[in-house]
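hiii so um. not sure if this is the right channel but i have a protein structure encoded as tokens and i wanna go backwards to a sequence. like what aa goes where. can anyone help
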């Protein structure tokens, strides 16, 4: 399986470079609008993952690939430690669950960096507010609002005392039921960043244990932030902001006419589930303290999350990595070809037949069993683009209107012009002869090297030689290839 993916990645890399050179000017608009990568669970065409796939595809042995991948992970660690974003990956987006897992993980790394930067800014802002508050107290100049030269906010509680708002963002359209003060949006903690594998693990944990701990932690954190931003608030105020369906306002209620003498019951009432004895919201509200989000215990540890991702990338089985690279290159090839073939009256329907087959084949976890057929379809598209005169049938002959099953569609294409499968088998055989003995399918990349040492050691490599000590009969160091991705 490893060699199978390796061979096809190398082949698709060479073909992809040719297609890029041939129709670069025609493909840019299509690439920016492409969604094929999400249909086949790949990566965006111009992303870091696709560029990485192209470089991996240019290498000829698993040993070189492993050495290069080791340097990629090392570079990712350096970028994280120096607080630099990974290029070719959005800087602040939650993981796209329709993309491959590697792309999701790189999104998490960039997003964690953005969150750490926001946390620093929020902490500095809160410290500034506290300093201004101290200055105002010394000068005896309290204000109920925000003065032009100050970001300090206050709220008057029910006993008439003026209290500082902490972690307040901006006012809402609500007023507090007991004090009539404006309700402010609190700055809250951001939730965890979950990739598809972590979501599955979380769902299995909930089903197995019935635990809702993560949800309780988030709710408690929001309550504490709300109390800090809105001194004098009550549970009903929080519910009206956090869960409006659980609050029914009274028809006679008019918050603009509030005179300070009405009770919350005159304004409306909580839903039945909120008033039920033992309700979790009531229990959490009673224990919540007014603490701004930046001073709370973090719900999500960015450093721990990124370290877990990088450790996982060090030990990733080659087959898992190659599958993601293969699908990413596959999507890139179709996107590039679509710019030309979708406008060709003679080939557009045949191209879309091939595209539909690939999309249907890549659904599910067993798509790798169809890799030979997928490669044949890819070669079909390549031939349609580079040598359209060799296509043995026009679009009318390529399709029948009443067939829907993907395998039948593929058979109807009658791929007479694809390269002989025997060529692929010979290529895989040559690859096996040129490489060292393959490690078991599920082994990490490190096992392609000396069993006593690993390229993926967490200790930094020595300056004189970044590779492990080789056996006497092997070259002193794997050949390092030129790469300029990161």
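sure thing!! here u go:
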């Amino acid at each position: 399986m490893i060699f199978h993916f390796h061979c096809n990645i190398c082949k698709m890399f060479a073909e992809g470079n040719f297609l890029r050179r041939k129709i670069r000017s025609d493909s840019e608009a299509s690439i920016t609008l492409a969604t094929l990568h999400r249909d086949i669970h790949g990566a965006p065409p111009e992303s870091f993952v696709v560029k990485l796939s192209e470089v991996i595809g240019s290498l000829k042995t698993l040993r070189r690939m492993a050495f290069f991948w080791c340097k990629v992970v090392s570079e990712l660690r350096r970028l994280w430690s120096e607080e630099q974003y990974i290029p070719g990956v959005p800087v602040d987006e939650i993981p796209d669950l329709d993309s491959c897992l590697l792309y999701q993980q790189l999104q998490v790394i960039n997003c964690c960096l953005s969150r750490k930067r926001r946390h620093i800014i929020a902490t500095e802002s809160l410290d500034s507010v506290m300093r201004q508050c101290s200055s105002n107290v010394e000068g005896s100049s309290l204000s109920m609002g925000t003065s032009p030269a100050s970001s300090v906010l206050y709220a008057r509680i029910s006993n008439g005392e003026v209290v500082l708002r902490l972690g307040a963002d901006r006012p809402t359209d609500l007023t507090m039921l007991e004090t009539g003060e404006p309700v402010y949006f609190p700055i809250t903690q951001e939730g965890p960043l979950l990739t598809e594998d972590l979501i599955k693990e979380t769902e299995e944990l909930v089903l197995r244990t019935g635990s809702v701990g993560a949800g309780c932690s988030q709710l408690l954190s929001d309550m504490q932030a709300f109390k800090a931003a809105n001194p004098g608030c009550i549970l009903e105020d929080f519910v009206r902001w956090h869960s409006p369906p659980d609050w029914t306002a009274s028809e006679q209620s008019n918050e603009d006419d509030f005179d300070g003498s009405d009770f919350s019951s005159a304004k409306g009432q909580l839903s039945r589930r909120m008033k039920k004895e033992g309700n979790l919201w009531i229990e959490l509200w009673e224990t919540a303290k007014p603490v701004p989000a930046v001073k709370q215990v973090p719900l999500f540890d960015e450093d721990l999350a990124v370290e877990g991702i990088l450790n996982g990338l060090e030990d990733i089985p080659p087959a898992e990595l190659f599958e993601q690279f293969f699908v990413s290159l596959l999507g890139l090839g179709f996107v590039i070809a679509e710019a030309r073939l979708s406008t060709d009256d003679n080939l557009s329907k045949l191209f879309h037949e091939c595209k539909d087959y690939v999309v249907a084949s890549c659904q599910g976890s067993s798509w790798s069993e169809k890799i030979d057929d997928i490669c044949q379809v890819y070669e079909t598209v390549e031939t349609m683009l580079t040598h359209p005169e060799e296509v043995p049938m026009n679009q009318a002959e390529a399709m029948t209107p009443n067939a829907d099953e993907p395998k039948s569609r593929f058979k109807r294409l009658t791929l007479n012009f694809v390269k002989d499968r025997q060529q692929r088998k010979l290529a895989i055989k040559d690859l096996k002869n040129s490489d060292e003995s393959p490690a078991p399918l599920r082994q990490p990349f490190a096992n392609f090297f000396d069993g006593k040492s690993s390229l993926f050691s967490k200790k930094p490599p020595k300056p004189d030689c970044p590779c492990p000590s080789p056996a006497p009969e092997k070259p002193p160091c794997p050949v390092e290839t030129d790469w300029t991705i990161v």
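oh and The beta strands are 154-156, 162-164, 168-175, 182-186, 247-249, 268-270.
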